[in-house]
Design a protein that fits this description.
His_biosynth; 38% helix; histidine biosynthesis; alpha/beta; 12 strands; EC 5.3.1.16; RibuloseP-bd_barrel; globular
Length: 248
């Protein structure tokens, strides 16, 4: 165990996914699988109170192209002032990107836009650097776009392009694991980290504290953090317990 204690810290990002003004969790990212967990502002405040230094905030309605929760996102960010917020969902042009930064997001997670509009993605990577993370949402080695409803190309080809553009960070989700509590796809994460020197954040599948320990062991290979969602909301463990295993 002493060797594990010397493993660098794994950054944990509790997720707050917003749909229809509520905090929800999906299964495999599919619309219609929402489980409602109440007020997103309360959820974010709870994670902040329990010691989170990052929150992963997602506008699912914007991601699916069916609306916006902009007002609520702003309230969440205001509520957790002092905690870093990574914002995701529907950010596909200059206006939505600038608005996300204006309301206080520390980092923007680009998904569909990085796949469908590579020239724009390259220009904002050049302009904003560390403030831009690229979301790689994967089924097998095929990327998923538009709220995971459309194919977005081959993972490795797209990564080669993003590496060339100078992407600062990748958020990697195995769509088939997300919201299933079946454990993270460690092999996929390893394969991604072999192809980049940039930090990688894992997303999807964390079900217990052993999963967090397994992810922490990948930190020396380039894994920076992990987004944690359904397991926290379902009470599989507390954030304090997770932070302890993650090395906080």
């Amino acid at each position: 165990m002493s060797e594990f204690n010397h493993t660098p810290r794994l950054v944990l990002l509790p997720a707050v996914d917003v749909a229809g003004g509520k905090a929800v969790r999906l299964t495999k990212g599919e619309a219609g699988t929402e489980t409602n967990y109440g007020d997103p502002v309360d959820a974010a405040a709870e994670w902040a109170d329990q010691g989170a230094d990052w929150i992963h905030l997602v506008d699912l309605d914007a991601a699916f192209g069916r609306g916006s929760n902009a007002g609520i996102l702003k309230k969440v960010i205001r509520q957790v002032r002092g905690v870093n917020v990574e914002l995701s969902g529907g950010i596909r042009d200059d206006a939505s990107l600038e608005n996300a930064l204006e309301i206080g997001a520390k980092r923007i997670n680009l998904g569909t836009a990085a796949l469908e509009n590579p020239e724009w993605a390259a220009s904002v990577i050049a302009q904003y650097g560390e403030a831009i993370a690229i979301g790689l949402d994967v089924r097998g080695t095929t990327l998923a776009a538009r709220g995971w409803t459309k194919d977005g190309g081959d993972l490795w080809q797209v990564m080669d392009r993003l590496e060339e553009a100078g992407a600062a960070r990748y958020v990697v989700t195995d769509v088939t694991k997300d919201g299933t509590l079946q454990g993270p796809n460690l092999e996929l994460l390893r394969q991604v980290m072999e192809r980049t020197h940039r930090p990688v954040v894992a997303s999807g599948g964390v079900s217990n504290l052993d999963d967090i320990a397994a992810l922490r062991e990948l930190v020396p290979l380039g894994l920076e953090g992990s987004i944690v969602g359904k397991a926290l909301y379902a009470g599989a463990f507390t954030l304090a317990e997770a932070l302890d295993v993650a090395g906080y």
